[in-house]
Amino acid sequence: MIELLRNRRSIRKFTSKKITPEAIETIIEAALRAPSSRGRNPWEFILVDDPQILDKLSTSKQHGSEFLKNAPLAIAVCADSTKSDVWVEDCSIAAIVIQLTAVSLGLGSCWAQIRDRQHGSVLTAEGYIQELLALPEHIKVECVLGIGHPDEEKLPVPAEKLQRDKIRYNLWT
Ligand SMILES: Cc1cc2nc3c(=O)[nH]c(=O)nc-3n(C[C@H](O)[C@H](O)[C@H](O)COP(=O)(O)O)c2cc1C
């Protein structure tokens, strides 16, 4: 696990190589094994591999979702907010589980934040995706993950660059 964490970096450039059905199945299994508060599993995952929909997903926000255009796969991490008051946490955990599973399969990924972000001056990024993916109204969108074979190399953050001053023992001071 520590090796996975060392190697995980946000990958926003992908080759045109398809992700195998076996790898997609492993990612699905990992997502469905994510822990959730009270085991309520409020999440819903929409896998998108249609290039036209991926293209539209890439304009969900003015900045920060462009990389979805060339991803062979995107996963919208959504939730039924009526099932849990901590669906944001549940979705976030599922999303990182998916991202780490992607690394374990030799894939790269990046998170595009959707919740609390704008598509334009009026429409929210969430509203845009709700319409694009035909989501029922009670289904919220936390993020969209772009996943694919990396077409950029990113080195692990060196151990000496880790922010050790963020670690405290027992008391703040
Ligand atoms: C909650 C969250 C939201 C993020 N939103 C975006 C985003 O909208 N667009 C994007 O390109 N990257 C996004 N990222 C990726 C971060 O920019 C990235 O994780 C950070 O710069 C550290 O780089 P690394 O992942 O390579 O270690 C997000 C990451 C997290 C955890």
Could you characterize the architecture of this molecule?
- The protein has a single domain, classed as NADH Oxidase, CATH 3.40.109.10.
- It is 29% helix and 17% strand.
- It has helices spanning 2-7, 21-32, 51-57, 87-104, 125-132, and strands spanning 43-48, 73-80, 108-113, 139-148.
- Helix 2 packs antiparallel against helix 4.
- Bound molecules: flavin mononucleotide (FMN).
- Flavin mononucleotide (FMN) binds at residues 9-10, 12, 64, 67, 110-113, 154.
Summarize the structure.
The protein is of the alpha+beta class. The chain contains five helices and four strands, in the order H-H-E-H-E-H-E-H-E.
Looking at this protein, list some descriptive labels:
single chain, 173 residues, alpha+beta, NADH Oxidase, four-stranded antiparallel beta sheet, 5 helices, 29% helix, globular, binds flavin mononucleotide
Mean pLDDT: 97
Neighbour order of strands in the largest sheet: 1-2-4-3
How much helical structure, as a percent, in the residues?
25-40%
What is the CATH class name? Alpha Beta
Distance between the termini: 31 Å
The dominant shape is globular
Structural class: alpha+beta
Tell me the CATH superfamily: NADH Oxidase
What ions, cofactors and ligands are bound?
A: flavin mononucleotide
CATH architecture assignment: 3-Layer(aba) Sandwich
Q: What assembly state would you assign to the polypeptide chains in this entry? A: single chain
Find the count of extended strands (DSSP E, 2+ residues): 4
**Cα-atom radius of gyration:** 17 Å
